[in-house]
Design goal:
There is one protein chain. The protein is α/β, with parallel strands linked by helices and about 525 residues long. An eight-stranded mixed beta sheet has the order 1-8-2-7-6-3-5-4, with helices on one face. Helix 6 packs across helix 7 and helix 15 crosses helix 18.
Length: about 525
């Protein structure tokens, strides 16, 4: 039996073969964009894999989930699984591994049907941008199937990020566009709602008390997606206690799962002695309000959570967020390239690192907020030219719908950042104007510096990959092909300063839903 290695070229060839056969039989030929979607879908289904993670857990923990699961319907998880495969193009093996991972995490939580009260605290650790959101959405769906009635999801501290998370929850759990539903608009069905509209979670908004009054009045599982804000947490705690707590016990007898996304951000108690930071205190007050509660933090940087001062035993074992019950390390998907792949010992992608020895004279590493960048280093110009080429290659490969970002990070001072932004913006505008005028001029364009720089960068960093068997599954392009396509790929590039003071205003991909923002 001869085994044929499945590469991107092979997939493209086979799509072309089947398309030709179909057109000969009278079918309508695919448009180029449709063909690229088919190729992208096949690539994701055939190549991306994810393994189960590793876990440390309390030795006295009693397993419960698999036995309970056998007697329960799985409507929420089933439609999320179908959604991942049909709409997000996950391959079957990847979905199965997510299924196993979320089974294991569910088993570490408390049994919502138990007659006993409980408070479990755990931590899930995963690499940056490695699928943590998909994992906790899967966990939310399984929690709903297991009879958890209240789910609280805490996002970051920025409202824009909270809305992005709400959209993911709408598509992956609720099945309705929460914002459109609140405004009583038509056509509010999204994501999993199109797969099974009869199964639905209930999103509680800031107007919840006007809508429902009491959680017991809602038969569906209730989810609240909130940003980590002192006022928001206090209002929620007051609403829950006033409308839902038992007047005698002062507790809510509904099983609750609280998921803390980016748990290292604002949730950790950084004060000493008996003082507690506002966010940490707000989360703890929510947990103790329920008879049956779980706290699960998700983070890529767990150190602050794990190394809470162990000498303060009462604080740890009373109501703090220390993950005393379990720590679960999530595995990244097979197509994930993170810090270990670039900076680790014998890292497979260490070749991506390029030492810069020309920045120190332009802006010393140790500088003050009054200092300015004397000139733009050549290495920065090369990096910008490389970003131009990357955008073009991605478009030529058919990956034209995703946002792209290049980060320049050489100062912690906002004043210096603003000054660098002006210099880079001026350089990029001049480069784009020159590229626009001459990118279709062939070899004649080489009389201009930006074209000479881009071709030098292409030959220095890119051309060698075409003959490297490690990258045989990628489409490669000549400099002539890149030059002829480069302006449309870089025309939307904008230079922005992004820091804590302006991130909500400047980091806004929602305004570019139809076209990618670069």
């Amino acid at each position: 039996v001869m085994t044929i290695p499945i590469t991107e070229e092979w997939i493209t060839m086979m799509v072309d073969v089947y398309e030709k056969q179909a057109t000969l039989m009278g079918a309508v030929a695919l448009k180029e964009a449709e063909k690229e979607d088919v190729i992208t879908t096949l690539h994701s289904r055939l190549f991306v894999q994810i393994d189960r993670g590793h876990c440390l857990k309390e030795k006295d923990h009693t397993p419960w989930y698999m036995a309970a699961k056998a007697d329960q319907p799985s409507h929420f998880w089933d439609r999320y699984r179908i959604y991942l495969q049909k709409e997000q193009h996950w391959n079957k093996d990847t979905v199965n591994e997510l299924d196993k991972t979320t089974d294991e995490i569910m088993d570490l939580l408390g049994n919502p049907d138990s007659a006993n009260s409980f408070l479990y605290r755990g931590l899930c650790i995963g690499d940056v941008q490695s699928g943590k959101t998909s994992t906790y959405i899967g966990l939310i769906n399984k929690a709903a199937d297991a009879h958890y009635r209240v789910i609280i999801l805490l996002t970051g501290t920025i409202e824009k990020l909270r809305r992005q998370t709400q959209q993911r929850i709408d598509e992956g759990f609720i099945g309705l566009d929460s914002y459109a539903f609140t405004l009583e608009k038509d056509n509010v069905q999204v994501g999993v709602g199109a797969i099974d509209p009869n199964t639905s979670g209930w999103a509680v908004t800031s107007t919840a008390k006007k809508i429902v009054g009491q959680l017991n009045n809602i038969s569906a599982p209730v989810i609240l997606v909130l940003k980590k804000n002192k006022s928001v947490l206090e209002k929620l705690e007051r609403w829950l206690r006033f409308y839902n707590a038992n007047k005698t016990t002062k507790k809510i007898d509904l099983p609750m799962l609280l998921i803390d996304d980016e748990a290292d951000n604002a949730s950790v108690n950084t004060k000493k002695d008996d003082e507690v930071t506002a966010i940490n205190k707000g989360i703890r007050k929510l947990l103790v309000l329920f008879e049956k509660a779980n706290y699960v933090g998700f983070t890529a940087t767990p150190y602050a959570n794990i190394f809470i001062d162990p000498d303060t035993e009462k604080e740890m074992l009373d109501h703090d967020l220390f993950p005393r019950d379990f720590i679960y390390a999530l595995e990244a998907p097979s197509n994930y390239i993170g810090a270990r792949s670039i900076f680790g010992e014998n890292a497979p992608y260490a070749y991506m690192l390029e030492a810069n020895d020309d920045c120190e004279s332009a802006l010393p590493m140790k500088h003050k907020k009054e200092d300015v960048m004397a000139y733009m280093p050549e290495s920065m110009k090369e990096a910008i030219a490389s970003f131009f080429i990357c955008n073009t290659v991605r478009d030529l490969r058919g990956d034209s719908k995703s946002h792209r970002t290049m980060m320049i990070n050489i100062s912690r001072f906002i004043a210096v950042q603003n000054q660098i932004t002006k210099a880079v913006d001026s350089y990029v505008r001049d480069a784009k104007r020159e590229i626009h005028n001459y990118y279709l001029s062939g070899e004649d364009a080489m009389q201009f510096e930006i074209f000479r720089l881009m071709r030098m960068v292409y030959e220095k960093y890119y051309v060698g990959f075409a003959s490297d068997p490690t990258f045989s599954d990628l489409k490669h392009f000549s400099w002539e092909q890149i030059q002829a396509a480069i302006y449309p790929s870089i025309s939307r590039i904008e230079v922005r300063t992004i820091n804590g003071g302006n991130a909500p205003k400047n980091l806004d991909y929602e305004n570019y839903e139809k076209e990618p923002n670069n």
